[in-house]
Specification:
6-stranded mixed sheet, globular, 6 strands, alpha+beta, 1 helix, 42% strand
Length: 92
C-alpha cells in the first residue's frame, strides 16, 4: 500500500507522496489536503491501494482514508485540535 501524508511545517504544510520524488509545499492546510486526496484518487484509478494520512501540528493523525481497488473508500475521522470532527476536503 502506498502512503500520502499531509504534514505541518514551520511555513505551511507538506504533502509527502512517494510518487512525487519529494515534498509538495502549500501555505494552507486545505490546499495540501486537497492535493493529497487528488493524488490518491489518481493512484487509485491506476489500480493502486493508497492510504492518505493528515496530521496536525502535534503530529497526531486527524484523518485517514484508504482508497483503491478492494478498499472501497474507508475514511476515519479523528478529533482535531478543536475537538470537532472533520472530513477531508473533496478532491477537485
Amino acid at each position: 500500500m502506498k502512503t500520502i501524508s499531509v504534514l505541518p511545517e514551520a511555513a505551511g504544510w507538506l504533502v509527502d507522496a512517494e510518487m512525487t520524488g519529494g515534498y509538495l509545499h502549500f501555505l494552507e492546510a486545505e490546499d495540501a489536503e486537497r492535493k493529497a486526496y487528488q493524488l490518491g484518487g489518481v493512484m487509485a484509478k491506476l489500480g493502486l491501494t493508497v492510504q492518505v494520512l493528515v496530521r496536525d501540528m502535534r503530529g497526531l493523525t486527524i484523518c485517514s482514508a484508504v482508497l483503491g481497488p478492494g478498499a472501497g473508500t474507508r475514511l476515519s475521522l479523528v478529533h482535531g485540535a478543536s475537538g470537532q470532527r472533520r472530513a477531508p476536503s473533496s478532491a477537485a
